[in-house]
Amino acid sequence: RARNLHKAAKQVVTEFAGKFPRSRIELQTLCGVGRSTAAAIAAFCFDARETILDGNVKRVLCRLLALDGDIANKKFEEELWCIADALLPQDAADMPAYIQGLMDMGATVCKRSKPVCSVCPMNDICLARAQDRITELPRKKTAVMVKNLSLFWLVLRNRDGAVFLHKRPAKGIWGGLWCVPCVDSLAALYKLATQFGLTAEDLSEGAEISHRLTHRQLCIVPFAAQIGGQPIKSSEVTGEWVLPDNLAAYGIPKPLHDYLNAVQSSLF
What is the pTM of this model? Predict the structure, then answer.
């Protein structure tokens, strides 16, 4: 998000002459800004008659109108966009209050579980309530297939207690973050260790770490070692030695942050 925000700021300067765009269409061209976010900015900041369609609003519409469809389906989502557009207030000055009220109702009243129908301002016209389908609607998303992925970390420290970090590629897991060298097989780990003058016997295997991403379950096995002043034997391995007190200045993945904190006394 920080990278997208930085890119979007550059776009405002280069593509819009430093003036923040006002229309939803122009806002959507900014890096990291989708249709719903662009509509919210336009409505809140510029009173534009634009609807949002986040998860809360989808739930409100599906229950209010008893709409039975898969909210992950593109065709059904387009139907929701059309309905949401048709419900917008005519007076543009009402837009900020309308959008905020819609968001708040979905977040605090028409909740996914245990909705508070008794205080809902639309409980007398809610079709899902009339049909006793509150818990049924909206239809739950189809479960996402989660893939298991094994990773191996090479956690190195030098005589000063610094940890070796390198910046990961922009694309892929933990894109652009700083991490210890990471590979997907034990054979690749041992080969990588030789670039630091280490053998398999020099590595100490740690406890497996489980970490869930949206579509992947990571199984991470850290291998730690201390090295002296020997130089790195390959130009393919690039990075920086970072002292423990300076780790906060580097963006590192959460599982690595937790791991380094847990083993701080033994590593440092």
Answer: 0.63
